Amino acid sequence: ELSSSLDQGRELSAAMARHPQDFPPLYVAMVRVGEQTGRLDDILRQLAGWLEFDRKSRERVKAALRYPSFVVAAMAIALVVVNLFVIPRFAGVYKSMKVDLPWMTQLLIGFSDFMVGSWPLLLAGVAGGAWAFRTWKRTDGGRALFDQWVLRVPIAGRILRHAALARFARSLSMTLRSGLPASQGIQLVAHTVGNAYMSNRLERVRTGIERGESLLRACSGTRAFTPLVLQMIAVGEESGTVDEMLEHVATFYEEDVDY
């Protein structure tokens, strides 16, 4: 279909824009800049590098969170098995002994009896809660609130925050280097960070830039960026090398996520 559109006289960016499910806005905007500047080959090389970076970044995060997710799931399964099958057997032995049990043991047996007697209701409650959570998470407000909470989770939150900052820095560096205005670059980058809370903060940055604020001041007002990011942006604005400074930020956080 792209080939057919080109044969009809459309530009490559216009042909791509007709298929947003395959070509995201950032991709289309970068190709449009390449067409306008006569540097389409350079732009496509940058996009290829960015797509490779984005894939590796997501794989890093998944690899970092895979083991703790497995441990939590195993603990939940073990809790259910112990309460449904193991403790009831011990409870029968204790009842036959007719002795006074410590309060902690009584609490465990009581909780086990509750799970054994009410497991259909508990299962329905868990299923209903999971459905309600997924429905809430699909809303704009729910997704942003959940992503904000995730960034505060010990260890995992730090990994996700640094991965999002790396994607932000790499993507904005690429758009600035290609010649896109900062406000337009921020708008496009907001959809690439992989975190709704960070995306909302980047929209505020874009609004601040459109009001005439510098990139540093607009970013500082969101409280979503680390001191390192702000310091590097400040240095970049003073020296006219914001794209290079953001490239260094992306490299630093990529290595930190790996660590």
Chain-wise SSE layout:
Blueprint lengths: L1 H6 L4 H6 L7 H13 L2 H58 L5 H35 L2 H11 L5 H23 L3 H8 L6 H15 L4 H6 L6 H13 L2 H17 L1
Helix pairs in contact: 3-4, 4-5, 4-7, 6-9, 7-8, 7-12, 8-9, 11-12
Short description:
This protein has helices at residues 2-7, 12-17, 25-37, 40-97, 103-137, 140-150, 156-178, 182-189, 196-210, 215-220, 227-239, 242-258.
List keywords for this structure.
259 residues, mainly alpha, 12 helices, elongated
On the 0 to 100 scale, the average pLDDT is 88
The proportion of strand residues reads: under 5%
What is the ordering of alpha helices and beta strands? HHHHHHHHHHHH
- Structural class, from helix and strand content? mainly alpha
Q: Note the gap between the termini.
A: 43 Å
How would you explain this protein's 3D organization?
It is a single chain. With 259 residues, this protein is mostly helical. The chain is 81% helix and 0% strand. Helix 3 (25-37) packs antiparallel against helix 4 and helix 4 packs antiparallel against helix 7 (156-178). The mean pLDDT is 88.
